[in-house]
């Protein structure tokens, strides 16, 4: 019976370790999906910024032609172009900051998940040891008590007589 209890305790420990591994895989897949979504968001941002850059090139080309035609209007267009460039640059910087922030948060979350999984594994190991010691020690004590009672009954059944050297078994002879 003690071996069976020990086997159950080991089986529960293995099950808890497997559950912790599965939980870690689920969390890591969620983090992976979040990383993919961040990558898609950066691609979308890039797609939105590229037309602005292309538009800026077109504006610069047209402004060269307009420079010759309208000197006064060029000053107005230059001011508007600078405002557009400034806005594009601010948007690009904001997107960069958002991506950096998402990266920092993802790394922090991964570290937190790793610590949580490590703590869970340690707790499972501590629980396994506690259950093992709580079960094995009483079983040994009961086994010792049973052996003592058995020896007492055996001695009482023989009437308290000990074997004489003539009737000693081979094992007993070794200690005489």
Explain what the structure shows.
By secondary structure, the protein is an all-alpha fold. It has one domain. It has helices spanning 2-69, 71-157, 170-175. α1 runs antiparallel to α2 (71-157). It is rod-shaped and about 135 Å long.
Question: Can you tag this structure with a few keywords?
Answer:
176 residues; mainly alpha; 3 helices
Give the tally of β-strands. 0
Q: State the order of secondary-structure elements, H for helix, E for strand.
A: HHH
Class by alpha and beta content = mainly alpha
Give the count of helical stretches.
Answer: 3
The residue-averaged pLDDT reads 82
**What is the CA-CA span between the terminal residues?**
36 Å
Radius of gyration: 40 Å
Tell me the β content. under 5%
Q: Which regions contain 5 or more consecutive residues with pLDDT less than 50? A: none
Main β-sheet description:
none
Question: Please, how many domains?
Answer: 1
Helicity, as a percent range: over 70%
Shape: rod-shaped
Write the SSE topology.
Elements lengths: L1 H68 L1 H87 L12 H6 L1
Helix pairs in contact: 1-2
Could you write a compact summary of the structure shown?
The protein is mainly alpha-helical and 176 residues long. It has helices spanning 2-69, 71-157, 170-175.
């Amino acid at each position: 019976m003690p071996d069976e209890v020990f086997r159950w305790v080991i089986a529960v420990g293995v099950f808890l370790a497997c559950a912790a591994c599965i939980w870690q895989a689920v969390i890591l897949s969620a983090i992976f999906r979040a990383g993919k979504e961040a990558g898609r968001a950066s691609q979308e941002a890039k797609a939105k910024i590229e037309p602005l850059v292309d538009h800026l090139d077109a504006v610069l080309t047209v402004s060269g032609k307009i420079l010759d035609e309208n000197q006064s209007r060029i000053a107005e267009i230059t001011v508007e172009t600078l405002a557009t460039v400034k806005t594009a640059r601010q948007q690009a910087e904001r997107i960069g900051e958002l991506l950096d922030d998402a990266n920092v948060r993802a790394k922090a979350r991964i570290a937190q998940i790793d610590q949580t999984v490590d703590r869970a594994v340690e707790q499972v190991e501590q629980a396994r040891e506690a259950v093992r010691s709580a079960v094995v020690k009483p079983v040994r004590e009961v086994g010792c008590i049973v052996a003592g009672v058995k020896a007492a009954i055996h001695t009482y059944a023989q009437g308290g007589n000990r074997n004489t050297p003539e009737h000693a078994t081979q094992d007993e002879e070794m200690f005489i």
